[in-house]
């Protein structure tokens, strides 16, 4: 009977503390590496929306067989009621998140984004 009680296995306090310390270090590394994802996501979203607006301009110009569109010098959000943005029918969602301007030849720029 004494032999059975002495052969009980288990983790010592040192082993548990070392395991918790390792998990803490891993958690810290993962937290620091994920910290920059939100800024990368915002930059990628802005770049993707610019590409979508440029594609809408290109599609409009190709569908209407024209080489010019009404230019917009001052950057503004594109909305459904914009008269100077005839290509807005090719945009999936409006208003846009960022402000856009373009030249008559169809090159779109993104001057600002909130």
Structural description of this entry:
With 114 residues, the protein is of the alpha+beta class. It contains 3 helices and 3 strands, in the order αααβββ. Strands 1-2-3 form a 3-stranded antiparallel beta sheet, covered by helices on one side. The chain is rod-shaped, with a radius of gyration of 29 Å. The mean pLDDT is 87.
Topology:
Blueprint: H1 2-6, H2 13-34, H3 37-63, E1 72-76, E2 99-102, E3 108-112
Antiparallel strand pairs: 1-2, 2-3
Largest sheet: 3 strands, antiparallel
Q: Which structural category do the helix and sheet elements fall into? A: alpha+beta
Listing every helix as H and every strand as E from the N terminus to the C terminus, the arrangement reads HHHEEE
What is the count of helical runs? Answer: 3
Oligomer: single chain
Using the CA coordinates, give the radius of gyration.
29 Å
Mean pLDDT: 87
| Overall number of strands | 3
Tell me what portion of residues adopts beta-strand conformation: 5-15%
Measured distance between first and last alpha carbons: 75 Å
Contiguous runs where pLDDT drops below 50 for at least 5 residues: none
Residue share in helices? 40-55%
Question: Which strand order spans the largest sheet, edge to edge or round the barrel?
Answer: 1-2-3
Shape: rod-shaped
Question: Summed up, what is this model?
Answer:
It contains three helices and three strands.
Name some characteristics of this structure:
114 residues, alpha+beta, 3 helices
